[in-house]
Amino acid sequence: MASDSSQPSPLKIGIVGLGPFAQFLAATFVKQGHTLTAVSRTDHSLIASRLGILFFKSYDQFIDAHNDVILICTSILSLSEVLKSIPFDRIKGPTLFVDVLSVKEHPQKLLLQAIPVESDLMCTHPMFGPESGKNGWRGLPFVYDKVRIRNEDLCSRFLGMFQSEGCRMVEMSCEEHDREAARSQFLTHTIGRILSEMKIESTSMDTKGFQSLVQLKENVVRDSFDLYSGLYVHNRFAKQELKALEHALEDVKQKLQEKMDNTLEENSRSY
């Protein structure tokens, strides 16, 4: 994976939730020279060992590792329950909490309620994954919101991990992220899910446009339905986008029906 010559100084990073996306991020963090620990409700000790991560089976041990950064990589739907399991009272000294969930207002609210008041919080969304980022992160967008930052040096060092890989750094509020993501990410996933329900497959006469639709369907269904439903349940802007999609479909159907009616009427006059 190509990266710039200037690497951020090493950090101690603790990861909560070691699923596929967390593993994808962790592989690059380890290559950068950072020290990683992880905890998860599922025993990922073997995977962690292969990645060079120290895996803990208890949150107490994880917290006692005294990480500079605690990275929240749980699913959107499980975030609330996971946060209830973390013994935040055991944290000694300021810590930077960072989430990488695909919605932002929801984790911002829950984390501000849960983490110690002396700890910092940054809400982020790497807009790429194991497929789109498999050949490197250069030019891929990394969205972040410095929700509560007092230790600017630590925050900059964390952001530097993505800057050094060539990411396009995009700073925006959690609200703005969710509004834009509802139209881009949620709408994309919705179209892909609809195509999956229709069971579209490649044919012997595919156009380029249809090939794009098939590829969209295949990309979307690689993600779990929990991820997709989380984009809807915990992004307040997604509801209006779904309604807009429904109205747009009805408008298109009405225009088609009107065109067909007019055509039939014109044909009947010609005879």
Automatic annotation (TrEMBL):
Reading the lineage from the top rank, the first entry is: Eukaryota
Pfam families tied to this protein: PDH_N (PF02153), TYRAAT1_C (PF26213)
On whether Translocase is a keyword of this UniProt record, the answer is no
- Please list the GO terms describing molecular function: arogenate dehydrogenase (NADP+) activity; NAD+ binding; prephenate dehydrogenase (NAD+) activity; prephenate dehydrogenase (NADP+) activity
What does the UniProt keyword field contain? Coiled coil, Oxidoreductase
Which segments constitute the Prephenate/arogenate dehydrogenase domain? 11-271
Q: Which PANTHER family match?
A: AROGENATE DEHYDROGENASE 1, CHLOROPLASTIC-LIKE (PTHR43207:SF3), AROGENATE DEHYDROGENASE-RELATED (PTHR43207)
Q: Does the keyword Oxidoreductase apply?
A: yes
Biological processes, Gene Ontology terms: tyrosine biosynthetic process
Q: What is this protein called?
A: Prephenate/arogenate dehydrogenase domain-containing protein
> What is the native source organism of this protein?
Stephania japonica
Coiled-coil stretches are 235-266
Q: Which InterPro entries match?
A: 6-PGluconate_DH-like_C_sf, NAD(P)-bd_dom_sf, PDH_N, Prephen_DH, TYRAAT1/2, TYRAAT2_C
Membrane-crossing ranges are none
